[in-house]
Predict the 3D structure of the following.
Amino acid sequence: MTRLSAGAVLVVSLLGTSSLAANAAGGSSDADNPLERAAARILATATPGHPLKVVVTTHTASGPRITAVTVGSAARALALITAGLSRSTTIGVDMAHPVHLDVSNDTYRSRQWPLTRFGAESLWRTSTGSGVTVAVVDTGVLGTHPDLRGKVYSGHDFIDPGTSATDQNGHGTHVAGIIAATADNKRGIAGLARSAKILPVRVLDAKGEGDSATVAQGIVWAAKHGADVINLSLGSPLSDSAGRAAVAYAISRNVLVVAAAGNDGCGLLGSPPSYPAGYPGVVGVGAIDRQGAIASYSNCGTYVDVVAPGSEVLSTMIARPDASLGCSPTWTYCTLSGTSMATPYTAAAAALEIAREGTGWRQSAVAARLSATVDDIGWAGRDDRSGSGIINPRRLLAGRWSRHRHVRNLAGCRPMTQDETMSSHQCDVVVVGLGPGGEALVARLAKAGLSVVAVEAELVGGECPYWGCIPSKMFIRAANLLAEARRVEKLAGSVSVAPDFSMVAKRIRAEATDNWDDTVAADRITDAGATLVRGKGRLVGDRTVQVNGDTYTASKGVVLNTGTTASVPPIDGLAGTPFWTNREALRAEEAPASLIVIGGGPISVELAQAYSRFDTEVTVLEVGDRILGPEEPEASALLTSVFTAEGISVHVDITIESVSHDGERFTVVCSDGTYEAEKVLVAAGRTSRLQDIGLETVGVEPGKHLEVDDAMLVKDGLWAIGDIVGRGAFTHVAMYQSERVAKVILGEDLGEYDTSFPRVTFTDPEVGGVGLTEKQARKKGLNVRVGSADIAASSRGFVHGVGNEGLLKIIIDADRGVIVGATSAGPMGGETLSALAFAVRAEIPVATLTNTIYAYPTFYRAIETALQDAQV
């Protein structure tokens, strides 16, 4: 766009002008004055063959005004352009140009919703699957289909030996089209891995029937004949040694095996098992529908690793398909649904990544990355319905995996020598879990020159930046703005407030989480000089961690930072409902009309109030005797009073008996009544990720938390930090602990452990606490004095007016003359807490605090009032 400042004309220099502009200027492309030359050059940008539309953008007080006029001649267009350029309010003048969807030109491309979801055309700029062979072990493939011609090898037919594995059912051809149908040929559809080749292996007859022995033979044959990926869109509830051995053989030859999870649905008792999906090393694939929800027919179980689009999938078809498929005999394309359709999308995504990597790729690493780059849609982390989540080829290819992927030759990790295997590596330190504390520790040690391997199964950065601290505070910031706007009428005039939750969702997606993409965070790890390994790390012995089959031995030791997941209380019926945890609550695209929050801790009350301020009807259910149970009772009472005034219903000291969902609404039956809502948020604490991380291999018994000393040492060569050590599940605590471990490893002075434990709940009013509560201090046998102050009654509270509710409470050890605990609740209560936190941590004498000048009028001046109240 040509941009102008007020009262000035900017002449834009273009490389040449069109004959259109020259003719409009009277036969000369070089008009006599700068304004006409600028107008001619703008006209030259018109797209040949398209209507001439002049677009003039002008500045107004209410925002830019865009005026578009279609004209019939170049002369008229030139006149309008010149007039637009002459105005002092003009921002720019353009010729409108055609805009179109950036999609392939295949006839039915618009009906291929999975490709749209994945952004296939964008993916193809990075990889098209060229050079990768995908074996379709199925009913055969029609290699002469117009969209598959030249893409299908001759293969092998185990049903009619000696033939070319052609398809007499239609299912295999449908699968092959999803993977590798030719794109941009102005016909039919496009395959996700458009340049991959198909190796057909026919193991099912024209009715789609066969046996496990033939399937096993087909897997072995494919592995021996050049397959990089084997697609198994078939299954049986029974396992057998032949199938297990065949899969193990394929994997041993560096072949990635992908199999359908089955279409029996997930009932109350789960699903029957499905093989080959259930065999070790196989990527088991469930299905999602167009809305991104788990398809009703998709099996669930521990063998579901990922999910992919499986409903209403359009793909290639033979002329006379089997009647059971429901496709017309006259069609050459057909829409089918099932995990059989989800599986080839996963195989195709793997083919894209394999082609991008080139030689040296490893099936175990690709399988791990398929799970590590998903969109998590189920419970936090892995679950039996969605596995790790929905495959995301964009993240798979865009994560700069050449640096981040799990390989042997990255910086910070040395291959072992002599008789040790090629999958074993030696490093200085292995950090398992890259939440804030783990990420900080890796960078600190790597920058100090140590060889560090950083292991992460999900997103680098952990819960805080993607599903916790950062997005929740963005949400709360927006909610508090709405609350402040509604207070205007009591202090400053009148205002109309219309909440728009989409703005919150957009900011969380774009600014806080980069659409839940950790590329930037991963770059920080590798830029520091560490090796990033994607996958689940498990101890297999002292100072030794295994990831994706590879072993890392750390000379100095291993640091565990595996974090927590949202606890799911054993309430009757709850597990079978689509309830929210903090992850779903912070990925929501719209605010529900009503919400029941189970739990009364910090996460619960923060999200409850935030949603309420976006006009959601909120009910909080807490089985304890008050919300914010660990904090001072006065703070709980204050927040309950504020919630009640804001229309949030709070029920405490109750029993939650059952939860049910009828497909549209939740019903929660409690000891004090029955409640209904559109959504239920479960925020009833966190559970440490200590199961199945190999603690038993190093003689450590996993409990609720890991026991550590003040150096964060579990045992010789093993440290733990963060939520799993039970010293406070907060980011700032994990960061503090990570620095202590770094000092120990680097031989630096450690200092005394800070037990002051400052924390803030970001409600309105904010509730900050540090050190001991009154109850804890008295339980320790201290000679306690208590002082308090009413924030609303302070000078700053009086000035603040509406929204000034708050209190300040200090706990004094009278024998030592120091503050041992404090609570700061009120506007910006967390900021006022800082002064109290220093007083507790440094054990500043009360005599010094009472002989201190406190600025007037400030909220923190209430500290002086509380000290006076304690009669010190």
